[in-house]
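pasting for the record
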Amino acid sequence: LFDPSEVAGHPQPTGPADGADEGRDRPVSAAETRPVKAGRESRQLPSDRDPGGTAPASLRDRLAAAALDLLALLLALGLLVGVSSAMGVDVRLSDLPFYLPTWIAFGFFYQVLPLLFWGRTPGMKWAGIESRDDDGEPLTLQQAALRWLVGLVTWLLLGLPGLLALTGRSLTDRVSGSRTLAST
C-alpha cells in the first residue's frame, strides 16, 4: 500500500530493486524486526512502563481518584436516604443495611461502566490517570468488574492492599491483569 520510504521507521530495502533473493542470507537487525503479539502469557512488559511508554500512576494520584470516587458514592447514599425520607420513610441508622444492596449496585455501575467505555472513573479522570490491560488495550468487562470487586475488598480491609501500589501495580491491577497509568 505504501512505499517504504513513506513509512517512518521502516527499514529501506537493500539489494537489487527487482526483488531478487540477493541479501536474504544476511542477518536481520533488531531495527528491521517487528514484535509479534503471540498472546498475553508470552508477552512480558517492563514493570515500570506500559507498552506506550507511559509511567504508572503515582500513589498520590490513585488516592485522589479513590477519594473523589468515594465522595461520589457517599453522596449517592445520602441521596438514596434523602429520597426515602422525602417519600415518608422513617430512616434510622439501623435501617442503613437495607440500603446497602442498592448502594453497592450503584457503585458497580458507577465504576465498571466508565472503566469499560473510557478506561477511567470520574475520579480517575479528575486525577489524570487511566486503566488499560497489560497490552495497553481497553479493559474488558471481566477486567473492569474484577477491578471493582478487588477495590471493594481493598476498602473493606481499610485500604491496606492499596499499599501494593507503591510497587507500581496495585492489587486491583494485579488481579485484573491491568495497569493504572498516568494519562497522556
